[in-house]
Amino acid sequence: MIRLVIAEDQTMLRDALATLLSLENDIEIAGSAANGREALDLVRHHKPHVVLTDIEMPGLTGLELAAQIKRDGLETRTLIVTMFDRPGYLRRALEAGVSGYLLKDTPSTELADAVRRIAAGERVLAPGLAEQAWSAEDPLSDTERRLLRLAEAGMDSQAIADAEGLARGTVRNYLHNAISKLGAGNRIEAARLARERGWL
Amino acid sequence: MIRLVIAEDQTMLRDALATLLSLENDIEIAGSAANGREALDLVRHHKPHVVLTDIEMPGLTGLELAAQIKRDGLETRTLIVTMFDRPGYLRRALEAGVSGYLLKDTPSTELADAVRRIAAGERVLAPGLAEQAWSAEDPLSDTERRLLRLAEAGMDSQAIADAEGLARGTVRNYLHNAISKLGAGNRIEAARLARERGWL
DNA sequence: GATTGAAGATGACACCTGTCATGCGTGCGG
DNA sequence: CCGCACGCATGACAGGTGTCATCTTCAATC
Asked: What are the strands of the beta sheet with A77-82, ordered from one edge?
């Protein structure tokens, strides 16, 4: 019997997946969580064989959840199920030590099978994503990424500088670096490109 | 027996919902589609009592699907299930003549009930969204909306002017109008605000 | 036919951005 | 210890942006 914890912030999908998987004879749902923090508590308490998790969740992302489970030294393996086929995400997922990475447009019939294979110690990757994973390294530094996110929200250089305790000119330097690394023409395009590639 | 067609572009959620709802004794899945065009074909062919559809789908959106069903004079009622609680969406949905509007973080247990009530001719709205619907009218003109979308992608005023056959100054005037209507500080913030409210 | 109003254009001004050269500390490997 | 990269800052310049007053068309309306 495979013990499974589900973490997914969309209630409807979470419920549906739980119902679906509980129909399998060899899978038992130990619990389901609407955010990463709850999921971590459930994993620590139930020590399931597999945790099936979304990436983008309030509080703690699925990637951070996976990393924390590793750090705790738990045996629980992580299966990421996400909407995004952005190259950067898969790379960061593998670095976080996940055992599987599927897209939300995988047929649900393959899901139970993926859970079984992961419980058995195999690695399951969405087909066609494997090579793409190492295609382009994320060129952004942490600071560039952080400032780009603020710029994306519409803050001007001065506002970003105030928020980050930097000088206005320094903010523009960082954004300039990000823009040129990404081959963009301005901060808006840079943010868009970075987001498309999963670097934001 | 309620005949139901499902339209949802995420395979996993589509499958899961179909499985879930087919467990109900009084509901029968006549078909499921991954985009609006397919859904329209299925509806025209099967004439189901209810079509459960996402909004954002490739090709034909759920709102356009609902409007087309009305135009065809079919009896099929539409139930929108979407991620977004943007006020503009609900307003446009009601204008398109839908019978129900639920969010994807509704518990899936309420879904079958919503389908039944819609089949019975009732109207089902996500709680708390009802009043919000008419809260803020979309203040943007079509041109402002179009130019704002281009600006959002990172194009500068000159590039937008070239693309739209306008003068650079005119583009800036339109964006200025959009910015001030939305109470934003610049075009980036304006685009973000408009998108959050469902006006883009 | 005169009036009104919307859509688009122009020009001017202050301010913001992108770019680049340069300077200053701090820490780290040789 | 020296050098040197790195993070951060400064100043300057060209070009982009936000704002506003004003003008021209052109179609709708009275």
From this structure: A27-33, A2-7, A50-53, A77-82, A100-103, A124-125
